Amino acid sequence: MHGELTWGYLYRRFIPPLSTTHRVLVPDHMGFGKSETPRDREYSLRTHVDNLTRLIEALDPRNITLVMQDWGGLIGSAFTLRHPDRVRRLFLLNTLTGYGKTSAGSTPWFQFILKHNKAGTLGEVLGHLDVNILSMMKTQGLENLSTVDSHWFAAYGSAFPTKEACIGAIEFPLDALDRSVPQ
After folding, report:
1. I need a labelling partner for 107 at 20 to 30 A (CA). Which of 17, 29, 58, 101 fits?
2. Using an 8 Å Cβ cutoff, are 10 and 48 in contact?
3. Top-level CATH class of 8-180?
4. pTM of whole model > 0.70?
């Protein structure tokens, strides 16, 4: 389960070796990667968990090991709480579980989101991820630039070819801000 601004491409090196002995499913969250980006849907934790639930119910895997990174931890742990009979293990990568009250300024990413949301510029900044994806990833803490090459840019930028395709990346963090910032 990937997080904000990434997609299944993040796991491209994990999948081949794991698939020799396990069934590997790598869904892209709505509005990210190869998934659709519908304009008439809500991009919230609840909706992403509902989407994951429908996928898992349709494919019917059992004894699931959820590998979760960033927002994937929140989505996967919420699914696990609803369906503990399906999940055997949780593997957490740079994430947390739960979705309680947090400080909006607790990470550089949320400081960035809060600042641009208050200024009314969030849609414009995150609406051009096709060209500024590296800058946004750096805001989230990307430090190992040795992995960044033309393939990386093409893969991550292709997930957000238009401003309309960036709606998930714009609205999903706003769900967390709505839950954590006093109105």
Report:
1. 29
2. no
3. alpha beta
4. yes
Alpha carbons 83 and 123: distance in angstroms, whole number: 35
- Which position has the token pair 């639930």? 53
Exposure string for 103-129, b = 16+ CB within 10 A, e = fewer: ebeeeebbebbbebbeeeebeebbbbb
pLDDT over 70 for what percent of the chain? 92
Q: How many CB atoms lie within 10 A of CB 82?
A: 14
Q: Where are the domains of the chain?
A: 8-180
Give the pLDDT of residue 146: 86
51 CB-contact burial (10 Å; exposed 0-12 / middle 13-18 / buried 19+): middle
Which sign, positive or negative, has the C-alpha torsion 137, 139, 144, 145? positive
